[in-house]
Structure formats: structure tokens, C-alpha cells
Amino acid sequence: MGKSFSPTPDQFRQENGYEIDGVWYPRVTSIVGIKAKPALYRFYGEQPSFYAGQQVTERSAEEGTRIHEAAQAILLGEEPEVPNDIAPAIQAFRKFIERQPITTEAAHIERRIHHPEMRYAGTIDILGTMKGRVGVIDIKTSQAIYRDYNLQTSAYMEALLPDFPDLSTRWILRLDQLQFCQDCNSSRRVKGGREKIKKDYTSKVKSCGIHIWGPVTGIAQIKEFPDWKDDYAGFLAAKRLWEWENAELLESIGY
Ligand SMILES: [Zn+2]
Question: pLDDT tens digit string along 117-172?
């Protein structure tokens, strides 16, 4: 979203791939973008305009990037400056790694990966050891953990395996922040400047006239997805479809 519908070959090349050792590889996130995302259409449908939706999306992405950077710096033992607007999520992350330490190193964070044979590239958030196992840890700042993420991380797994034979699993670590109504337990989430309130249908208080919001609370949710072979088959199918969709541009850049 937000990109021009007919990029020049140069723009296409820049926006959708990486050049590694003189070879251009399409990037994993561009490839998985071929898959329809009903939740995204719903989101745009709720916005006052397409432009307003784009503004929220861009701002959310920027907040997400800052959360990534702070969490990654903390894993490397740094003390990054954490702006107030993301402090609760980062606090939740700190508590999480106290309970569940992650060991990693600088070369394993924001690591560029590529699969020469299957021809794709990407950048992983974290390759680390947790609970005694080596895995890919992908940070998300979304409101839920979506199954779609599995396509992306399966591609990372396959690209890393030759260099890291101990690699055995992958995790999604979701960092988010919410407020809860002290009366009816509805939740309020502000992301990209947009407020979203969700009712708690299990709450005994059916509706309260004016919510009484508690403090912004950080959330760190971890979910493991140990098996990736089926997801990888899905990823390769998505890649084939992506190549079909972009056949002309790919040909024009000599792919
Ligand atoms: Zn309420």
C-alpha cells in the first residue's frame, strides 16, 4: 500500500529486493505481500479516507521500527533512550527477557539473509538462543499474532539452516501496549495516532457511559511455531505467484 501502481524498473528493483554479491534477490516481505490481507481491507474501510489510512499505517510502521530498535539494542546490552510513547512496550520487553533470557550477538540482529538457490533475501530481527534452543525471533507490534507471519519466518529458517545447523525453531514476540477500562475492562489501543476500543464481552459490566482508562500497559506475548515445512511450501507458492504478477518488471531488470 502507498506505493505507485506502476513503478519504473529501477524503483521496483530498489523497493522489492536486495543486491548481494552482484545478484539481485527479491525480498521476503515483498513476496509475501502478494497474499490478500482481509484485516487490512477492513482497517482501510474504517478510515475516513484512503489517505488517512495511509497516514496511520506509516505512523504505526515508524512506531514499530522504534520499538524494534530499542528492543534489539537492549538485547545487545545497550541502554537505548526510550521515548515515552513506546516506554510501556519496552518495559514489558525488559520484564520478558528477565523471565526468559535471549542470548544473541550483534551479527545476529538485523541480519541480512539470502537463499541463493531459491532466490530470495530478507532481514531477520533476531537469531538467538532461548530456552536452550536456537531460533529466529521475529518482533511484531501488531494487535495480534497472525498466521501470515509464518510464511515470512519459514523463508528465514530455510535461508539460515545451511549456516546454522542448530537452528530448530522460530518465535513471534509481540510487543504492544494497551489501556484497560477500570469499570468494564474494555481495552484501548492507540497505534499510529488511531484509537481503537475493544469491548470485553466476558466482563460483567455491560457498558459504561464513559470509560475510565487505567495506565498504558505494555504487553509481551511470545508464540512458538516449531514446524515450518508446510509454511515454506506456502511461501514458495506465494513467490511463484509474485513472480507471475511482476513478470514484466522482473524481466526488465534481468531477473
Ligand atoms: Zn468502560
Answer: 999 999 999 999 999 999 999 999 999 999 999 999 999 999 999 999 999 999 99
Rounded to two decimals, the pTM is 0.92
Distance 193 CA to ligand 1 centre (A): 21
Asked, for residue 254, whether it belongs to a domain, the answer is no
* 91 burial type by CB count under 10 A (0-12 exposed, 13-18 middle, 19+ buried): middle
Assign 200 to helix, strand or coil: coil
SS3 17: strand
Distance 196 CA to ligand 1 centre (A): 13
Total domain count for the chain?
Answer: 1
Ligand 1 mean position to 55 CA, how many Å?
A: 28
Give the Å distance between the CA of 45 and the centre of ligand 1.
25
Parallel, antiparallel, or unpaired: how do β-strands 217-224 and 167-180 relate? Answer: antiparallel
Residue 102 belongs to a domain: yes
